[in-house]
Amino acid sequence: MITIYDIAEKAGVSAMTVSRVINNTGRISEATRKRVRKVMEDLHYIPNSMARSLVLQKTKILSLLITDITNPFYTTLARGAEDAAKRAGYRLLFANSDEDYAKEKDYVDMILSTRVDGVLFAPTGDHSVENLEQLQKRNIPFVVLDREIPGIEADVVLGDSKEGARKLVEHLIGLGHRRIAMINGSQDVSTARLRYTGYCEAHLLNGLSVDDSQVAHLNYRDFHDESALDALLNLEDPPTAIFAANNMLAVGVIQSLRLRGLQVPDDLSVVCFDDFGPSGAISPFLTLASQPAYQFGLLGMQMLIERIEGEAVHENRKIILPSEMIIRASTQALK
Amino acid sequence: MITIYDIAEKAGVSAMTVSRVINNTGRISEATRKRVRKVMEDLHYIPNSMARSLVLQKTKILSLLITDITNPFYTTLARGAEDAAKRAGYRLLFANSDEDYAKEKDYVDMILSTRVDGVLFAPTGDHSVENLEQLQKRNIPFVVLDREIPGIEADVVLGDSKEGARKLVEHLIGLGHRRIAMINGSQDVSTARLRYTGYCEAHLLNGLSVDDSQVAHLNYRDFHDESALDALLNLEDPPTAIFAANNMLAVGVIQSLRLRGLQVPDDLSVVCFDDFGPSGAISPFLTLASQPAYQFGLLGMQMLIERIEGEAVHENRKIILPSEMIIRASTQALK
DNA sequence: TAATTTTGAGTTATCGGTAACACCCATTTT
DNA sequence: AAAATGGGTGTTACCGATAACTCAAAATTA
After folding, report:
1. What is the pTM of this model?
2. Does the C-beta of A14 come within 7 A of strand C?
3. Would you identify the CATH topology of the domain B161-291?
4. 3-class SS of residue A186
């Protein structure tokens, strides 16, 4: 590997002069500057960012921790984050917790050991508070994405889970549905709680009562446990519509319904949160509340970089991004 | 930040002893080992991987460079790569070139400056040869994914583009289609060339001739330029079926056809390469050649890690993974 | 012309670890 | 009893860069 010392020797200057040329600091005569530049190019010199990080105490690496890389919401978010990071000259260390607290913890350790300059953190749930406290304890700036964590004061970018849920459920009510089931994520996750609240509000605002036997609390990431759906369908008064709390759950619900010979929307209407990215465009089917995923990543990353580079330690900011209800073919009026 | 020197002082030993405890090297009495461990825990010590990397000349970071993070093929691949990397104790530095050579080059510079131990490299196309040569020049091990690069000798994981394409087109021929258009990626990309070859072979094997006016060479990533589709549809003999060379192109094709009031498969049949991941399961619609994306990432990463850790410099390996044709609703017999 | 300032460098210490070697003391061997 | 062995630990140098300081020569000023 070529170091500044190699450059220095070849150019007949000291290492410090080379360093100055690289960083455009100090005073260097145009002649030596040119000479050093030439040698650097000839030798295809690339600075060792480890060494630089060690002395500067910053790495120019940011970490993005998401909970499900197979979910288009998060990959779109990742693109937003990546674009903002790249623009500001940061590299991205990428991690995917799979909605798994243990994996999340492992990654936090990695992050700490890598001494990244900041973390864009989509937590798996409320218990992530411990991992976030690790970051706080070591003064690593972070911005929380998508899910609010009780007990953590930080910049945060959220969606309007309650409003979005209310609108979706009111859409179903408007179509005449009265028994609307909800397949929710874990109650450990703020968005799941808020979407449930929105679901309840929609009922109450329309003079309907909430029947908790119509509500199942599962996990956002997958829909392996079909017994919840079985239970719903075997109710005395089975639902005529289902609100899936996110896109992945909706996929599971629709697949399961299909296996049972039930058609959407003929037999049941289905709505959910979050769109499916480009690949969802093949057959835009689901009525859903679409969140601006790219903006989540972009704004979150911008806030993070401001935190890192800005001197003023301003108040914590909370950005709430609206969702847009898109009515498509998965819902229809109750017959 | 807490360093080994802090630990050493508190434990009444030298820094070297702390280092030995951390790495389980050398001889340490059980008593001091315990004492040092205790202090490390009390102080929540986490090693500085930058400092360690600097002296060890290795970072335990691998880089994964993909070309489209919004494509489920690559995100699934990423999960495979991540799983394999994590199992072997490596972190992943993640990069997304967006099928853009300039971005790819930027990321290669970042990779070089980060001194990663190896790169899992899905190239944008043949011109990536320069970027790969950069890695070779600096002795950074890499494995090439998905696309073969002429002039580069390396381990590589590929799909069976030719075979897959042939099967898809023969499926269409079997359904009676005779004018089959192809919307292809750039000819600068090996998979696009091979898929075209497969397309031609299917024709020739079935006594049909290839009409190159039915073939458009675009870009894998997006389908902004609709003039190619216009040209096809305005032919004297317009196609009755379209072979899109990958999933993203298929999305574009189907959207465009829909805008033009054409129905799939009633007006045209459509097939493509690569499935859509979990989100595609809502309405499994497209007949396609599904590639084992997770395996691409997993096997590629395993090979990479072997290269890095294994002493034997064995021959370059080329793994070709088969694709599976899945017949769904986007194709039907010619009326 | 002498004093002062500016310019363009070089020197040294340091970031947080680890390799290689040195060293002491308690056993064991001769 | 002297020599050899080896377990347990400390010292020193170094990885590749940069901050802070120093300093000589040139340019400017008095």
Report:
1. 0.92
2. yes
3. Rossmann fold (3.40.50)
4. coil
